[in-house]
Design a protein that fits this description.
Structural class: alpha+beta
Helix content: 25-40%
Order of helices and strands: HEEHE
Number of strands: 3
Shape: globular
Strand content: 25-35%
Length: 77
């Protein structure tokens, strides 16, 4: 099963239209990804709050279609 890399990127970009998003498929199985998300909307948020915002954008897909997401977030410099 799993989630396509493009779908994952599109979901994050829909929630954070200003974001720079890069996705890497870590295992080639559409199940384990690394995502790097840089968005102005993260400014002033803790790292945990930034990650929660991204997970919220993915709805209930974590643990289902999407098994693992190695997430890094930040604000534009």
């Amino acid at each position: 099963m799993g989630m396509q890399q493009a779908d994952l990127k599109a979901m994050i970009e829909a929630a954070f239209p200003d974001a720079s998003v890069s996705i890497t498929d870590l295992a080639g199985d559409n199940d384990h990804y690394a995502a790097h998300v840089v968005s102005e909307s993260f400014r002033g948020l803790t790292r945990v709050a930034q990650h929660k915002a991204v997970y919220a954008a993915l709805g209930g897909r974590m643990g289902g279609e999407l098994h693992a997401l190695q997430l890094t977030t930040g604000v534009p410099s």
